[in-house]
Amino acid sequence: MTGIEVLGVSKVFGKGSEGVRALDMVDLSVPEASFVSILGPSGCGKSTLLRIVAGLLPATNGRVMIAGAEVVGPNPDVGIVFQSPVLLPWRNVLQNIELTLEFRGLSRRKYRDKALDLIRLLGLKNFERSLPHQLSGGMQQRVAIGRALIHDPPVLLMDEPFGALDAFTREQLNLEVQRIWLETKKTVLFITHSITEALFLSDQVAIMSPRPGRVAAIVPVKLPRPRSFKDLQAPEFQVAERDAREVVDSLWRRSTL
Question: Rounded to whole angstroms, what are the CA distances from 144 to 116, 136, 161, 199, 235?
Fold first, then answer.
């Protein structure tokens, strides 16, 4: 089992009266091989929660389980894609993807075929030797996804990876991420501000309240896969979008009272 269980997780930054409660008693279940998005306003603790799941940040209270084992630090079974691709400018596409292998003490020669397969999967064939400044923003983010997948982790965490991209590129990468997920069946936890993006990609969407972040609602998405943007007009999608927007509107009204 490679599912994720978030059990009563709270996070406070600072101490005493100066402390800021970012998360408060978050419970969330991400079934094995499912795609779950976390949707919420800026400052609600989405990225904080993702870093706790990744083992990059300790929880103040509660715990996270991956594949039945408690997360106590960075986990080799987890790949992470951040908001910015953070590529090394002096390394080409292949070398940037292989960077994870170096950090983990794995043989680049052993994983070379895997790296080349990923490059093809990500639509980067013939760009193996290109440097980051020769790539578009969308292509750079594809390299970052390859870097997260090279060691074949069963869990993939994505922290609003397309937020800085133009709308056209973002939509194309949504299709690419869906295709990659269908081929690899990773357990994916995806952070976004976009209701449409969350619903298009996900099996279910967890909507978080303003700080301190809590899971206010879970919206299931009952659409067959693979999905295309024509499915945005499907009755099932319209129902899910209506439910999500009602929750978001309710949370916004309460936060401004």
Answer: 14, 13, 9, 23, 35
CATH classification number, 4-77+153-256, choose in 3.40.50.300, 3.40.47.10, 3.20.20.140, 1.20.1440.230? 3.40.50.300
Cβ-proximal residues to 53 (8 Å cutoff; 6+ apart), any chain? 4, 6, 64, 66, 71, 78, 157, 189
* pTM score of the predicted model: 0.93
**CB atoms near residue 186 (< 10 Å):** 22
> Is the pLDDT confidence value at 78 over 70?
yes
The pLDDT tens digits of the residues spanning 158-207 come to 999 998 888 888 999 999 999 999 999 999 999 999 999 999 999 999 99
CA 99 to chain centre: 20
Question: Which pLDDT band, with edges at 50, 70 and 90, does 1 fall under?
Answer: low
DSSP β-ladder status, 187-192 and 35-39: parallel
Consecutive H or E run containing 7: strand 4-13
